[in-house]
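Hi all, posting the design record for the shared folder.

TITLE: backbone redesign
STEP: 1 of 1
STRUCTURE INPUT:
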């Protein structure tokens, strides 16, 4: 018999804390347009990549699946000035 796996789902009220945790991990996060967001590479000193991986594992564990909240995350990022708008051809 197959086991049921329930993955935690992030709550919309967790978005500000999620964004703060990503930034604290040393990565940039910003909305791109109105329907996407990106998490940039961390600027890490040598040897810090394992610590950062553990931080991201903890973020995933704490917040869970957030794909369904993309539009809400984007709206929050835009509200705090963390966004880039691109033109139809992909340029700023």
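Okay, here is what came back for every position:
SEQUENCE:
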């Amino acid at each position: 018999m197959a086991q049921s796996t329930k993955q935690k789902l992030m709550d919309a009220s967790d978005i500000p804390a999620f964004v703060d945790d990503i930034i604290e991990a040393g990565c940039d996060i910003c909305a791109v347009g109105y329907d996407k967001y990106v998490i940039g590479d961390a600027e890490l000193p040598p040897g810090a990549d394992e610590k950062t991986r553990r931080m991201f594992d903890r973020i995933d564990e704490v917040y869970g699946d957030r794909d369904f909240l993309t539009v809400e995350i984007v709206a929050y990022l835009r509200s705090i000035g963390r966004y880039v708008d691109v033109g139809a051809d992909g340029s700023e």
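COMMENT: The mean pLDDT is 85.
Let me know if anyone wants the other runs.
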